[in-house]
């Protein structure tokens, strides 16, 4: 195993007994196309195993932590937590892309940053940890990196759909839909910055408002929704 994988294990918070398992969890199937030795080796089998472990860990955590939530609510939260954007976001924080074994083609087309590859790699690494240790150790790894994504809407603020989260929360809490409006547009057409305000009538004594900016209206709306979610202290399990 490459020496610099030791730094990666520090990122993971886990040291492998069988170093080949870690290496195999990082081999994308494209790598075998250019390296005969790895023609039949990839991280896909470990990914399948990791997916099953992840499902069980997250479902058990939700079941035990949110006793008052319905099956439908828990299913929505689970779906978001184990989604590709969230897993890819965690992989980026762990610097998984830096250690992936990819084909030259994948390398040149941005494979190290591609969400699908990073999300699959996270599950493969989890599968490798499970095979190298036991369920409890794998469970600890999952909760260390995913628990905040379950409990707090701002823990993965770069990858969550805040407009959907805010709308679900607003409908559930206040029985209204958030309203978005353009406050101003700054700059020339080819470099325009939008500032958008989101507003919720809380039905009690005032309107809840926040604003956000972005290079297009969609990005600015997400930024505004994120700010209001944080202001209101929205949690994923409460919103969905």
Summary tags:
three-stranded antiparallel β-sheet, 3 strands, flat, single chain, 240 residues
Mean model confidence by pLDDT: 88
Number of strands: 3
Strand content: 5-15%
C-alpha end-to-end distance = 43 Å
Count of DSSP-assigned helices: 11
User: For the largest beta sheet, what order do the strands appear in spatially?
Assistant: 1-2-3
User: Taking Cα atoms only, what radius of gyration do you get, to the nearest Å?
Assistant: 21 Å
Helix content: 40-55%
Structural class estimated from helices and strands: mainly alpha
Write up what this structure looks like.
It contains eleven helices and three strands, in the order H-H-H-H-H-H-H-H-H-E-E-E-H-H. The longest helix is centred in the N-terminal third of the chain and has 22 residues. Strands 1-2-3 form a three-stranded antiparallel beta sheet, with helices on one face. With 240 residues, the chain is mainly α. The model has no long low-confidence stretch (mean pLDDT 88). Helix 2 packs antiparallel against helix 7 and helix 5 packs across helix 7. The protein starts with a helix and ends with a helix. The protein is flat, with a radius of gyration of 21 Å. It catalyses: Endonucleolytic cleavage to 5'-phosphomonoester. Keywords: Cytoplasm, Endonuclease, Hydrolase, Magnesium, Metal-binding, mRNA processing, Nuclease, RNA-binding, rRNA processing, rRNA-binding, tRNA processing.
SSE order and pairing:
Elements: H1 5-12, H2 19-25, H3 44-65, H4 71-81, H5 84-93, H6 104-108, H7 115-132, H8 135-151, H9 162-174, E1 179-186, E2 193-201, E3 207-214, H10 217-232, H11 236-239
Antiparallel strand pairs: 1-2, 2-3
Organism: Candidatus Fusobacterium pullicola
Binding site for Mg(2+): 47, 120, 123
Catalytic activity: Endonucleolytic cleavage to 5'-phosphomonoester
């Amino acid at each position: 195993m490459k020496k610099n994988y030791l730094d990666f294990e520090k990122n993971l918070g886990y040291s492998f007994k069988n170093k080949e398992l870690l290496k195999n969890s990082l081999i994308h199937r494209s790598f075998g196309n250019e390296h005969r030795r790895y023609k039949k080796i990839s991280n896909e089998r470990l990914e399948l195993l990791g997916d099953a472990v992840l499902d069980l860990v997250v479902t058990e955590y939700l079941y035990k932590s949110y006793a008052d939530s319905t099956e439908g609510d828990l299913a929505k939260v689970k779906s978001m937590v184990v989604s590709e954007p969230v897993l890819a976001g965690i992989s980026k924080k762990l610097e998984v892309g830096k250690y992936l074994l990819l084909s030259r083609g994948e390398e040149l087309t941005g494979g190290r940053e591609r969400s699908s590859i990073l999300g699959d790699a996270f599950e493969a690494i989890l599968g490798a940890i499970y095979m190298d240790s036991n369920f409890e150790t794998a469970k600890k790894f999952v909760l260390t990196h995913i628990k905040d994504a379950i409990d707090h809407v701002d823990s993965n603020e770069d990858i969550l759909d805040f407009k959907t989260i805010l709308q679900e929360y607003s409908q559930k809490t206040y029985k209204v839909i958030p309203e978005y409006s353009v406050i101003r547009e700054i700059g020339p057409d080819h470099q325009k910055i939008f500032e958008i305000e989101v507003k919720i009538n809380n039905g009690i004594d005032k309107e809840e408002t926040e604003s956000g900016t972005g290079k297009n209206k969609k990005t600015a709306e997400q930024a505004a929704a994120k700010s209001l979610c944080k202001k209101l202290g929205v949690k994923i399990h409460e919103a969905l």
